[in-house]
Design a protein that fits this description.
- The protein is an alpha/beta fold.
- The protein folds into two domains: about 30-60; about 100-275, 2-enoyl-CoA Hydratase, Chain A, domain 1, CATH 3.90.226.
- Helices cover about 45% and strands about 10% of the residues.
- The chain has helices at about 5-15, 25-30, 30-60, 100-105, 125-140, 155-165, 185, 215-235, 240-250, 260-265, 275-280; strands at about 110, 115-120, 145-150, 170-175, 180, 190-195, 200-205, 255.
- The strands form two sheets. A five-stranded mixed sheet has the order 1-2-3-4-6. It has a three-stranded mixed sheet with strand order 5-7-8.
- Helix 5 (about 125-140) runs parallel beside helix 6 (about 155-165).
- The N and C termini lie far apart (about 130 Å).
């Protein structure tokens, strides 16, 4: 009787060695699901690593989360930021007629001839409430809101714009008048929107102008929320998305000055003729 172990050994000795498989054959034989799971876990591990590094940097590095920007209410900022360029900043296409001292002051509302309410100055926090009070007191006489403002509070600008649309008022930017930053949001509220020749209308990104220093997460969340609200409001007012895209592309310390063609193409201005009573230049009382 032959020992089974010996037979096994003998068989192994006499058998030809199996050919070595190539790397390609090995990879082909591996289950696709196993490859996908391996890749997933590798990506997940990398993501966790990067997240941990980011959280560490946020927790350990103290940064000023206020976004740099043009704040017309501060005395050390220009009342009108330079135009958006890739090189040396350019001046605005037209110099506004009103002096910086007038534009820098908190916005005031004065009823002039022809039912024109002149809104002039920076849109400070609380401007919307004062505007509402003015409209309630003189609403039956107001037909047109003439804007001359370097912008300011986004929240107040949206509220003013909504009230203008609710009251079905016309908005207007006179020759060499200024409507910049958040002011075009107010302008968008008009059922008819008129920009005269050489009107200066410009947009840029929103920024945190307060002295509070939120965390990076809070700053990012607030910026995204504000951006969404502005985009939604402009859409509701019938303004094309191009206006807000130009704003998003422009740093807050620069200004993108819209051309008459862009104003029309983006539907920020509307076709039509202003009522004769309101067509005359707004005069200060």
């Amino acid at each position: 009787m032959v020992n089974p172990i010996s037979r096994s050994v003998a068989t192994n000795i006499t058998a030809e060695p199996k050919p070595r498989r190539s790397l390609k054959q090995v990879l082909v034989s591996i289950d696709d699901g196993a490859i996908m799971r391996t890749a997933f876990y590798m990506l997940l591990g990398a993501a966790v690593t990067f997240l941990a590094v980011d959280l560490y940097e946020v927790a350990t590095v103290k940064t000023d989360t206020r976004l740099p920007g043009h704040d017309p209410l501060t005395t050390d900022a220009p009342v009108l930021p330079p135009a958006l360029t890739e090189g040396v900043p350019h001046a605005p296409p037209v110099t506004p007629a009103s002096p910086a001292e007038v534009l820098r002051k908190p916005i005031t509302f004065n009823l002039t001839g022809g039912g024109v309410l002149l809104a002039e100055g920076a849109i400070d926090p609380g401007a919307a409430e004062r505007f509402k009070t003015e409209i309630e007191a003189r609403g039956e006489y107001v037909k047109v809101v003439a804007l001359n403002s370097p912008g300011g509070s986004v929240e107040d600008a949206i509220a003013m714009s909504k009230l203008i649309r609710e009251k079905k008022l016309v908005t207007r930017v006179r020759e060499k008048a200024l409507c910049a930053s958040s002011c075009p949001i107010v302008f968008a509220g008009g059922v008819m929107r008129i920009a005269e020749k050489d009107a200066v209308i410009g947009v840029h990104q929103v920024f945190n102008g307060s002295r509070e220093r939120p965390s990076p997460e809070e700053a990012m969340s607030a910026a995204q929320s504000t951006t969404a609200r502005i985009a939604r409001h402009l859409e509701e007012m019938g303004v094309g998305a191009g206006v807000w895209l130009k704003a998003l592309e422009t740093p807050p310390d620069r200004l993108y000055y819209l051309t008459p063609k862009e104003l029309a193409d983006f539907k920020l201005t509307t076709p039509g003729v202003m009522p004769a009573a309101a067509a005359a230049p707004a005069r200060r009382p």
